[in-house]
Fold this protein.
Amino acid sequence: MIVNRRTFILRQGRRQSAIEAIKATYARDPSTVKLRWYTSDIGPFDQLVMEMEFQDLAEYNKYWTAFDPGEDFWKGWFDLTATGGTNEIWEVVYQN
């Protein structure tokens, strides 16, 4: 199993709008991929973190190839976020 962990830097004052955009978009996502979004209570300011679990890289590639929230989403997302962030893939070596 792998985890795709992405961090997004938000423009100041846009946290709630970004959370609302995420909820609306992923509520329409028909996939069964396990998804988590985080905000920090103690830690970096103006940052969102997303984690998705996939069985392997093939499932990861299939998901992201099919993901298309639409042009309106991307226009809004780029208004909410700043340049920067990360896109990491982690291998799960132990899970209880």
Helices lie at 15-27, 57-66, 71-80. The mean pLDDT is 93. The chain has one domain: 2-91. The chain is about 35% helix and 30% strand.
